[in-house]
């Protein structure tokens, strides 16, 4: 697991070596490394933007978090269903249990009118998925350079275990988890990168999600519809789009969690690039008459080496603009699976509390 962490650190160093961003945030004090050892190649570094050739390189540390040891930072304290946030996912919910049959990931495609092409998604279906039942749905968005396999191929995020164990304990109903490809471009040759043009498809995902993917899922699978049964979560770039989508379409999602959200919703410059932003700081809020999510969680690790304190800044902006949400920090977590597990667990815990009270 250390090798992945080292490769992310080296990757970040190669970006820092460009030295093109004067205003940086949360930079680590790392020694310079030989370029040849780098896990990704910095191809150009001009006008505060960096293009990175990600072809064939392992970018999974961005897409689904830095890998950590199983159960590292898991909490052993006894779980109590209440309205409190548990900073870490309790180990009893992220551990594989012998008596639980977990859901399985499968893959599907849909035609996207937004992107004018077929697009893929991974979908976690409960082990006893049946057309005779209807299930709530969580849309779970990956990080930059990711795709629909980022979460399903990474066994250390414990998505199956957390959903399966909480359902087995009767805390939540069996829930379908859809992991889309969030890069909503109509140009098959366009690739993600740390520059504004390469990020447009991420901000375009809202159109693909609402107009193409959600209708597809609702017609192809036995799902409950409506905001009470429709949840949204995302990690890093997926966390950024989770916040953006929630502010634009708050009536669609009852329960939302943005984990370690990346910068760029509002204008800023971080160590990777200068972000034009999609909305202004004043627009970072729900519209006055909006139907809002029941719970809107924003969280981040206290040791996040990639997005630093940007999630906290989103929280502060939302607070300043009077938009209700829950903010918490995950002690000791980096840009990693401890943050993902914590965010997912607390999202489901809020859903569990609603179920218990209904
Ligand atoms: C950035 C910092 C972080 C950024 C994206 C990220 C597009 C995303 C990281 C991830 O998804 O892991 O400035 O700009």
Brief summary of the model shown:
This protein is α/β, with parallel strands linked by helices and 358 residues long. The chain has a single domain, classed as 3-Layer(aba) Sandwich (Rossmann fold). The protein is built from eight helices and twelve strands.
Give an account of the 3D structure.
The protein is of the alpha/beta class and 358 residues long. The chain has a single domain, classed as 3-Layer(aba) Sandwich (Rossmann fold), CATH 3.40.50. It is built from eight helices and twelve strands. It has helices spanning 2-18, 60-64, 91-94, 159-168, 196-220, 237-248, 310-320, 337-357, and strands at 41-46, 49-53, 104-112, 117-125, 137-141, 176-180, 230-235, 255-259, 268-269, 274-275, 295-301, 326-330. The strands form three sheets. The protein has an eight-stranded mixed sheet with strand order 3-4-6-5-7-8-11-12, sandwiched between helices. It has a two-stranded antiparallel ribbon with strand order 1-2. Strand 1 and strand 2 form a beta hairpin. Helix 4 packs parallel to helix 8 and helix 5 (196-220) crosses helix 6 (237-248). The chain is globular.
